[in-house]
Write a structure and sequence with these properties.
7-stranded mixed beta sheet, alpha/beta, 362 residues, 26% helix, globular
């Protein structure tokens, strides 16, 4: 893969760290290129207090931002997440000295709020970086108008998604949609929307296999991207019917009524749900939450949401469970994917078992 460095910060310490990191990355077989050349990922050197975004050319160009602080900032996790959003990064590292010593430490944070602290060394940074820079997003949607969705009345699966979206709120595992306007100006929000086809940042999703509306299998109803799952309204607004995956265009195929929000896109995890429904026919519903259950099988890599790699890892993990259609598996530093024969079964099983804090694993 090819990479380049965007020198925004003038910190001498950060430049020195970046030079040694670039040597390590080149030694892993990657090629450093000039700023005007195409690349697979960018090392974006930023100041934590005033992070500058790198305007990548497409969604497949990953941005890894790196900041340096003389000592650990107050509210480290919050400050790093703010910088992650403001720099529009796929991953952010902050390198700093311990407050009561000279030991060099670092932390890593992702949009999924996977936050890990560790003793600094280049190999560890690369270990956290590699799943991000090597992954492939499936974020695009092919929206197709479906006349059968006009005036169809109540759809059982859609009504169940409304009910159980609100149940996630009651369980305390449904953070509110992320307030982008508090961190980005409108120009950057528009750029982010065009890049990732979103209209907001939110966490968690639900889907139910389609059994009534005539489409080829596997098809399923799923919550949309960037919406409040506790206040779902209906089809074409914040719930969508996924009918397939176009491998050539690398896009999910989605049916919508003629009257729909033109910005709507299905959850970034749709590719994962699509593969699960196709692989395990007895699966009737899937829930993804940023929470945890003790003693679950867990992925070994922290691939980003919406990537083929994460979806394939989850399917492989489900195959190892006694009953893949009724299982809970962990996504490293991220959360859970939970399958069930129906959505009520899932919520009966997880009631009282969810930890809202996801354990961080190096």
């Amino acid at each position: 893969m090819k990479f380049k460095i965007n020198y925004v910060s003038g910190s001498a310490e950060l430049l020195e760290l970046c030079d040694s990191l670039a040597v390590l990355i080149t030694g892993k077989g990657h090629e450093k290129v000039n700023g005007d050349q195409d690349s697979n990922f960018i090392l974006n050197l930023i100041d934590l207090d005033s992070p500058k975004p790198f305007r990548r050319r497409n969604e497949e160009e990953k941005v890894v931002s790196i900041a340096y602080a003389p000592k650990a900032p107050e509210n480290l996790k919050s400050g790093c997440y703010t910088a992650l959003v403001r720099s529009i990064s796929n991953l952010l590292f902050c390198v700093y000295h311990e407050r009561n010593g000279n030991n060099l430490r670092a932390c890593s944070i992702t949009p999924e709020v996977g936050f890990v602290e560790f003793d600094y060394n280049g190999e560890t940074l690369y270990k956290y970086m590699y799943p991000v820079i090597s992954s492939h997003f499936v974020l695009g949607n092919e929206l197709a108008n479906d006349s059968h969705l006009e005036n169809i009345g109540n759809i059982r699966e859609v009504e169940d998604l409304k009910v159980y979206g609100n149940e996630l709120l009651k369980l305390g595992v449904l953070p509110s949609p992320f307030p982008l306007k508090e961190f980005l100006d409108q120009e950057l929000i528009d750029h982010l929307y065009r890049l990732y086809q979103i209209k907001g940042l939110s966490y968690g999703n639900l889907s139910i296999r389609n059994t009534n509306h005539g489409t080829r299998n596997p098809s399923f109803w799923m919550t949309a991207r960037g919406v409040n799952k506790s206040e779902l309204r209906g089809v074409g607004q914040d719930i969508l019917l996924v009918t397939g995956y176009n491998r050539e265009s690398n896009k999910m195929v989605v049916s919508v009524p003629s009257e729909h929000d033109p910005r709507i896109r299905v959850s970034v995890d749709a590719i994962e749900h699509y593969l699960i429904y196709g692989e395990f026919p007895q699966t009737g519903a899937i829930v993804h939450v940023h929470a945890w259950i003790e003693d679950v099988l867990c992925t070994s890599q922290s691939y980003p949401c919406g990537t083929r790699e994460l979806a394939e890892n989850v399917v492989a993990l489900l195959r190892k469970t006694p009953d893949p259609s009724r299982a809970e598996v962990g996504l490293k530093n991220h959360g859970l994917t939970i399958t069930g024969p129906d959505i009520s079964d899932i919520f009966r099983r997880i009631g009282g078992r969810l930890r809202t804090n996801v354990p961080m694993m190096e």
